[in-house]
User: Fold DEAD-box ATP-dependent RNA helicase CshA from Sutcliffiella horikoshii.
Amino acid sequence: MKSIDRMGFEEATPIQSETIPVALTGKDVIGQAQTGTGKTIAFGLPLLENVDVTNESIQGIVIAPTRELAIQVAEEIYKASYHKRARVLSVFGGQDISRQIRSLKKNPHIVVGTPGRLLDHINRKTLRLQNVNTVVLDEADEMLNMGFIEDIEKILAETPEKKQTLLFSATMPAPIRAIAERFMSEPVNVKVQAKELTISNIQQFYVEVPEKKKFDTLTRLLDIQSPELAIIFGRTKRRVDELSDALNVRGYSAEGIHGDLSQAKRMSVLRKFKEGSIDVLVATDVAARGLDISGVTHVYNFDIPQDPESYVHRIGRTGRAGKSGLAITFVSPREVSYLHHVERVTKRKMDKLKAPTLDEALEGQQKMSMEKLTQAVEAKNLGFYRNAAEQLLEEHDAVTLVSAALKLFTKEPDETPIRLTEEAPMHSRRGGGGRGGDRNRGGGKSSSGGGKGGWNKRSDSRGGKPGGGSGSRDASAKRQGYKRSSRKERV
Ligand SMILES: Nc1ncnc2c1ncn2[C@@H]1O[C@H](COP(=O)(O)OP(=O)(O)OP(=O)(O)O)[C@@H](O)[C@H]1O
Ligand SMILES: [Mg+2]
Assistant:
């Protein structure tokens, strides 16, 4: 409570008050609670409690799926450790390894890292984990999925048998939970009771729009909604590059982040976004999990995510710590049934939003200018401009003058033609022959006609088609494995 108070929070969040006492008894915990509800502190405080600062060895490790998340988690734990001044270090790929080796020599108590770089240090013998008493997997379901599990197994093999293991995420599909339990001893499941996987303070919408019209729809929505900070998710690195270029052409201040950029670039883009010197961040799923950036009011899924879990995490970049947010998902007509699948898994319906017209976009921008003008009037420091205004009013009527001022203020919707490489719709690319299947029956409820079908399983949502028939387990696993690694490359 002292730590929470010191961090400026009034009370513990439910996941914190439900997991911390259990974790303090030394038991293994699987903690699941919605995005933005303070899971970092929920595992961070028990982790810190297990650290003896007079002991010079590494006693806790946290493994996180992305570099930016590793940095953020290390910072949050450090902030929470004021009472004992634990040394917390983050290690991740893309950063000079010799610098990290020097920092590791300074005996951190807690190391937060991405799997690849942690393994690298283990292999170089610059990271010794034999005195670790607590291991945390943040975004545990992601870490125990195909792309990471081998690395995680290797890292865990370096830690003592007797230790406390804490797993946290907003999502925990049943098959992954089963894998998780293999790594743990009699874990206590703490799930903050919620009807929906997504948090209720995010309003959720979808827009049905043909692939070719997506971009115009996006810029019109940006004009109407005027987000403070927005994240736009695209499916691939190429998509992100093309989208951020296209947004700049139309006059938005946007930059992209994905796995092919240098680490320096990734960090500078994120810093600019946090400071608000760019207001649109275009991202692959590399930014989908865990990142806590205040002021993100809107999330746009320009491409619908690969699986329902990814949807939950992506939209969870807004609506954090009790704030409200808005999420809009774009689907082409052929993706509508897949969208309904996402809704079934999250147990939450999205409201349909009509694609706005050009006039509506202009109206939106005009409204913004009116607000700005009104604010300037209310600020009352216009003395210097009065003479000029009176001069103008001698020559023109007031309405004409204010109209001109508004016109100058207003960023009129820009329809400069943009060319984006088309993305295949979600289902046809991964249907493995499912192209002619149920999904072509069109949207609506048809795809749920076969009951739960095969879509409730994560593997099938990636590889299968509705109503089962996604091939043998083996083939499905292979497909999943293939997709898993290819997804890592794509982001
Ligand atoms: N007790 C608290 N009261 C208010 N705010 C809190 C509290 N604990 C943490 N926070 C703040 O809430 C925000 C979200 O916390 P955090 O990033 O830990 O969420 P999360 O549950 O891990 O979300 P995600 O699933 O997206 O990773 C952070 O800015 C954090 O500082
Ligand atoms: Mg988190």
About this structure: The first helix runs from residue 2 to 6. Residues 150 and 284 are 23 Å apart (CA to CA). The pocket of adenosine-5'-triphosphate (ligand 1) is lined by residues 4, 9, 12-13, 16, 35-41, 170, 290, 292, 316, 320-321 (CB under 6 Å). The chain has a mean pLDDT of 88.
